[in-house]
Structure formats: structure tokens, C-alpha cells
Design brief:
This protein has 99 residues and is mostly beta strands. It has no helices and 10 strands.
Length: 99
């Protein structure tokens, strides 16, 4: 799976990979299908911890440097949704666009 790319296996949620390096999300924008639950796979390449969150969706995930995990987003209405790395709020911004 490529960063920001989608890989779907039978019966699985669409998955989108996001790498965090030096407090910066790669890619900075991810397009996901509206009206469908999706999985964001988070890979923290460090060097420090990551606190991935969106207060409106009550999503929060803390990853140490070198860790890999995921969050499942609810069915989103078409629009834009902002996520941040609470430990790097200036550089750590991710925009999820549901279409």
C-alpha cells in the first residue's frame, strides 16, 4: 500500500496509509469515500511520539516513535475533516476529504 493509497481486500474496510515523519503528515490530504467507514493506518517514523486526534469525532490515538496502528473513521458526510498531531499542532495537520 502506498502512502495515501487505498488497498481493499474482500470484506475489509478501505484503508489509507498515513506516515508521520518529524511531526508532519505524509500525505497532508487524504480523499476517502463519503458514507462509508474507512481505516486510517498511522505509521509514526518519529523521532518523537504522535497524538493523532479529532475532537468532533472523539478520535484520539497515541503512538510512540516507530509504532504503527490504525483508527476507523465513521461514515462521513461529504466535506473536509481536520486531524492534528497534538504534540506538533503547527506542522502536524491532516485533512481528510470525504467525496
Amino acid at each position: 500500500m502506498l502512502p495515501g493509497g487505498m488497498a481493499v481486500a474482500a470484506g475489509e474496510l478501505p484503508a489509507f496509509e498515513v506516515v508521520v515523519r518529524d511531526g508532519v503528515f505524509i500525505p497532508k490530504t487524504v480523499e476517502v469515500p463519503a458514507g462509508q467507514r474507512v481505516k486510517l493506518v498511522l505509521i509514526n517514523e518519529g523521532p518523537g511520539p504522535l497524538e493523532f486526534e479529532n475532537d468532533e469525532m472523539r478520535i484520539e490515538k497515541v503512538l510512540s516513535a516507530g509504532a504503527r496502528s490504525f483508527v476507523v473513521l465513521p461514515k462521513l458526510k461529504p466535506g473536509e475533516y481536520d486531524f492534528i498531531d497534538e504534540f506538533n499542532p503547527i506542522t502536524g495537520e491532516l485533512k481528510v476529504i470525504a467525496k
